[in-house]
Amino acid sequence: MSQITTEDNIELDAHQLSALDRCDSCGAQAYVRVTMSTGQLFFCAHHGAQFKEKLSATALEWHDESSRLLENVNN
Questions:
Q1: Does pTM top 0.90 for this prediction?
Q2: Residues 44, 66: Cα–Cα separation, whole Å
């Protein structure tokens, strides 16, 4: 069973990603947290989008806060 959450639909027990959370692929700030049966993966917005199609089928949860990147642009 997959669950996809976005910033507008954050579960109460899920913590918000911070600057301390880093992308497992490139080390940039993570905006996507993927919970798999074997653990969690963290991705920047770029790598989250790149791996979403491949991983979403087996992910238990897909937590995406990449919309936060647009907050500074719109303000």
A1: no
A2: 8
